[in-house]
Design brief:
With 394 residues, the protein is an all-alpha fold. Helix 4 packs across helix 16.
Length: 394
């Protein structure tokens, strides 16, 4: 049972500088938006340190909620003066965060979820690690967050228009989504992707599952070498794999055909299936298959009635990864395919290279939404698999 530390009010000489440092970090962005990063850092530190001193050293602790609401209002007003309506929204968010942060630090609430024996340095490292991980996450997710609102741009631009920055409804439109659903080129590319990806996924799941089951047996010779070869498409640079497939398929007559693209994408998806199914088989009780054999079941019946239901979450997870890989892949299909097999990512690449069509932003947003749904499904299946194998509490 976890032991929680009691919240103890921290001295002002600790709280005020810590809150000031957070304000200096926020001042970097505010200062950059207004032409002076250094001034933003200095003002951010001074203003937040002063607010922490007032909240924790002057005001009564019972006034915590009024202080928070007042800070939200003041910062929202400051944001409105500096950046109109978007500034108001950002200012209100800053006010809410710093109102919470001042009391979280000053009242010692940051130590509550941690073990009581941790030193100050260990507490600092604990939260520094979380901040660094969060910053990396924001760095990775920011390009997606930028693309999604731009897909609703009413103009044919790849930048935010003044109307969008003012949150003017006239600056937003679904025209790029309409272009996607009404354009014959985009719809043909979508149909090709919806044909190629499921076929490649079916092959990846079939071959990958059988390979994983076979390689999970200890008596198979050269298991490690075979496994390394089968998962090599994940390791070898994609451009090298694409060039090799092009020369090989052109010799056997598969270059420029639908079957060639499907086989190429299946080769890229098989490693994902092997890895996920192999991980699922780690907790598989092989005495169940032996018991089924003793009861007279043949290997095929044993596989479908006993083994497959237990490893099904891993198989489906691998299939989803294989589907995403095929649906989003562009390099291999350019080398192996032809104009008749032009997929959605290929059409997006062509649009960027030749005509800079903003419809790409709408398509990218749709693909992101599909990927999020599929990855959410993978996570649900992963947890279900762990519960079935007794690796996590029910």
């Amino acid at each position: 049972m976890a032991v929680e530390t009691k919240a103890v009010k921290q001295p002002l000489q600790f709280s005020a500088p810590m809150v000031g440092l957070a304000g200096a970090f926020a001042g970097i962005f505010v200062g950059a938006a207004n032409g002076s990063v250094l001034l933003g850092i200095i003002l951010g530190f001074a203003i937040l340190a002063l607010l922490a001193f007032i909240a924790l050293g002057v005001l009564d602790p019972k006034l915590e909620k009024p202080f928070k609401w007042g800070l939200i209002g003041v910062m929202a007003l400051a944001g409105l003066l500096l950046g109109s309506l978007p500034g108001l929204v950002v200012g209100a968010i800053f006010g809410w965060f710093f109102g919470w942060f001042i009391y979280w630090i000053g009242m010692g609430r940051h130590r509550v979820p941690l073990q009581p024996y941790l030193t100050s340095g260990q507490v600092l490292w604990e939260y520094s690690f979380r901040v660094i991980a969060g910053a990396i996450f924001v760095f990775l997710i920011t390009p997606i967050l930028v693309v999604m609102p731009l897909s609703f741009n009413a103009e044919d631009f790849f930048t935010f228009t003044p109307e969008m920055l003012r949150f003017d409804p006239e600056g937003y439109s679904l025209k790029h989504y309409r272009d996607f659903f009404t354009s014959s080129e985009w719809q043909q590319a979508l149909r090709n992707s919806l044909i190629i990806a499921p076929l490649a996924t079916l092959l990846s799941v079939s071959f990958g599952t059988l390979a994983a089951i076979g390689l999970s047996s200890e008596h198979v010779p050269f298991r490690r070498a075979i496994m390394a070869i089968l998962i090599s498409p994940m390791i070898v640079p994609l451009i090298i794999s694409a060039a090799g497939m092009y020369f090989f398929y052109s010799r056997i007559g598969l270059q420029g055909t639908l079957m060639g693209v499907v086989l190429a994408h299946a080769a890229l998806g098989i490693p994902f299936v092997i890895i996920t199914v192999t991980a699922t088989l780690v907790g598989f009780d092989r005495s169940l298959t032996r018991a089924a054999a003793n009861m007279g079941a043949d290997p095929v019946t044993t596989f479908f009635r006993v083994q497959m239901p237990l490893i099904l979450p891993g198989v489906i997870s691998g299939g989803l990864f294989a589907f995403i890989t095929s649906f989003d892949e562009v390099v291999v299909v350019i080398f192996v395919g032809s104009a008749q097999q032009q997929t959605l990512p290929w059409q997006m690449f062509t649009g960027l290279r030749e005509q800079i069509s903003p419809t790409i932003l709408a398509v990218a947003t749709i693909l992101v939404a599909i990927s999020i749904m599929l990855l959410t499904t993978v996570e649900i299946l992963r947890r279900r698999s762990e519960k079935m194998r007794g690796m996590s509490p029910g």
